[in-house]
Give the backbone structure.
Amino acid sequence: MKKTILITGCSSGIGYETAHYLHDHGYEVFATARKEADVQRLKEEGLNALQLDVTDVDSIDRTLDRVLTETGGTLYALFNNAGYGQPGALEDVPSEALREQFETNVIGLHEMTRRIIPIMRRQGYGRIIQHSSILGLISLRFRGAYNASKYAIEGLCDTLRLELAETDIYVVTMNTGPIHSRFRDNATKKFLQYVDVEKSVFKKAYEAEVMERKEKKSENDPFTKEPIEVIEKVLLALEKERPAPRYYVTTATHLLGNLKRILPTAWLDKILLKV
């Protein structure tokens, strides 16, 4: 019997590549995206695609009803991948933008998770893969909203592992570093939507660190890896009898995650200001 997995945020990048990879390697994949145009494109590419907005409870209910109907009421795994980054210094990010960041990255993830757990409890097993980030372990300036959302995911994951410890439901945290995707392009759109660059004391820094970085697109950055690096860890989370509670993905995550553990905070801050 095929293992079934529901993946959120499959319009591009990691979600898109993971959905195709698992589909090609024998999984029954339910690939979801927020926009109907993306859903139709995924269907044309051969995936079982569904429209899902993780910030809309009704949309979540419709999607899960459809999935459970097709699987006979079971689901082996959930990959909570949907999310985006809201750049900008915290003093420049309005509360509306922070709230929107949390609605997708945290509340949406939480709502998907809490609705999946009863299904997995009934069937007696399951895997819940939560997509955090290196920025759930360390912080970078101008990434405060995203940092906060990923730190929140860390807290949710750590707690869920304890609450599900007596079950065969495994919660796995993915701390992913920089990956080639449309993530930076989408983040820049949110930056321009909410941050008034001209009035900010960080105007010059934004031009050098946010806008210029978008133009470079990290094509020559040795720390930016391909989505397959994430997929390999997702496979471990899905196929190991007892998956690790956490997987570091990319060299940057290993490096900065280890520095966080061994360095005094003041020393680490000096390094992070140069990243």
Remarks:
- The chain has one domain: 4-272.
- The chain has a mean pLDDT of 94.
- The radius of gyration is 19 Å.
- The beta strands are 4-7, 28-33, 48-51, 77-80, 126-131, 169-176, 246-249.
